[in-house]
Design goal:
The protein has one domain: Aminopeptidase. Strands 1-2-3-4 form a 4-stranded mixed beta sheet, with helices on both faces. Helix 1 packs antiparallel against helix 3. By secondary structure, the chain is of the alpha+beta class.
Length: about 140
């Protein structure tokens, strides 16, 4: 379950990775302008909600646990897909290959453990241009 302390760790990871995050979501201006107060308001509404799942990658630091990356698994209305996955690693972890390892592990995990028929990883296994051009299903 989410707790308020998660916000501090997540905000630190985001704010130390702004340049990299612009490459993950190339048409978005997130997280520019993000404030701590603005980042924690949605989390407070979810605190203690047992059916809210967030996958985060942690590495033990001598003093604290740091968030070193995030994974977002969302439903999608895009025709032919039932889920979309976005993931990123903290900018300081890129040179060590964490994001590539995270992508490989998450892709395998989602294929084996989640009930999706077809999952998209925009910017990775499908270009953003192609992803944006896929129409929504008329459900």
């Amino acid at each position: 379950m989410l707790i308020v302390n998660d916000v501090v760790k997540d905000y630190d990871a985001v704010m130390t990775s702004v340049d990299h995050l612009k490459t993950i979501w190339p048409s978005s201006d997130w997280p520019e302008g993000l404030t701590f107060e603005g980042s924690h308001r949605p989390w407070l509404a979810l605190e203690g909600v047992s059916d809210t799942t967030i996958v985060r990658v942690h590495r033990r630091h001598p003093i604290r646990v740091m968030v070193t990356g995030c994974v977002y698994i969302n439903p999608t209305q895009k025709r032919g897909y039932d889920a979309v996955v976005y993931l990123w690693a903290r900018q300081s972890e890129l040179a060590g290959g964490l994001e590539n390892r995270l992508y490989a592990a998450v892709k395998d995990w989602v294929a084996k453990e989640w009930p999706f028929k077809k999952v998209a990883f925009p910017g990775r296994d499908i270009s953003w241009e192609v992803w944006r051009a896929i129409p929504d299903d008329k459900r």
